[in-house]
Design a protein that fits this description.
Layout (H helix, E strand, L loop, with lengths): L1 H19 L3 H44 L4 H25 L3
Helix pairs in contact: 2-3
């Protein structure tokens, strides 16, 4: 009687597992749609971060310029380059994923 109950329990468990299984393609498509739905908000956030970093960089460069530091041009180029990089990366990712 013990083996019969064990066999029935195993069969019921396997049926339960098979019933809960999903199609892998459906899960991937659902994840793809969720990521694409957040993409516009993410790109807007990246643009906002770039704008804030640009303002911070402008203030830092202005302070260095007023103080007469000799490396003002290097600092300005670094801040400007980082802001341009952020905008370019956002645009490239947006075009790469076709959103």
């Amino acid at each position: 009687m013990g083996q019969k109950q064990l066999a029935i329990s195993a069969l019921l468990w396997l049926t339960h597992v098979a019933a809960r299984a999903q199609d892998g393609i459906a899960g991937i498509n659902e994840a793809n749609q969720k990521v694409r739905s957040y993409f516009d908000a993410g790109t807007n956030l990246m643009y906002a971060v770039g704008a804030i970093l640009g303002l911070i960089g402008a203030v830092k460069v202005y302070q260095k310029w007023n103080a007469g530091d000799p490396d003002t041009g290097k600092v300005a180029a670094a801040w400007f380059g980082s802001c341009v990089f952020l905008v370019v990366v956002t645009t490239v990712i947006k075009s790469f994923f076709g959103v």
